[in-house]
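Example record

One chain of 246 residues, shown exactly as stored in the release files.
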Amino acid sequence: MKKYVTTIGVFDGVHIGHQALFKFMKKIGCEKSLPLKVFVVSYPYEYLQGRFDGFIIPLKIRIGEILKYVDEVEILDLSRIKDLDPDEFFYKYISDQTAVLVVGKDFRFGKNAAGTVETLKNLSSEAGIEFFSFDLVMNGSFQKVSSSEIRQFIKSGQIDKVTQLLGRPLILELLVIGTTTQENVFLVKQKDELVKLGNGVYNVEEYYTGKKGLLKVKDMVELVFNEKLLPSSLLTFKVTSKVDQN
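Predicted structure tokens for this chain:
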């Protein structure tokens, strides 16, 4: 069976900490002439505990961003793996495909997130797999960059901090739900699975064409965009900055 440098995680946002881990994997892969593979868990464990605010970016964007750094991605459905004991999970998904395993130092896995980095290190040793735990990148306050922190910045509308920690603009999917009495102003809805952007006015760019618009988030969400948009259209935008309304 083909062997890889592998890692496992949700990787929501694919933030600068995740990017550093993927670059570390690439360095190992180049040294050992091995391809890179990422097992992406569909949801974080917080989802099972009712403490999940939503994803930072849509799944298709998440996968696309990860594939900028690695050769292959395999999605693991949380509902299918949540009841597996750590040993069972390791031998079912990891051991046969992996020559080198890299995970973040706070990685947890298996039923009730019972498996720790130390568990994984011991299992890897038994299976003859080289193992590395990786310190994720620190932010300007010397705190570990986390997807949870980024979600809070999105909710409070601190888009500059979001951009800094993602290393690129935030990406939103917006569903057109209607029009307004104003020309080129549309009622839109942020997709339910994504964490909701805090109140404010934001400069946005259409993801594929770069066409610019304004997103006004309050009780209703309005998109000012110089295009004809049909109800039920699903649009993808980069949030480039927040408009200073002082």
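Notes: The mean pLDDT is 92.
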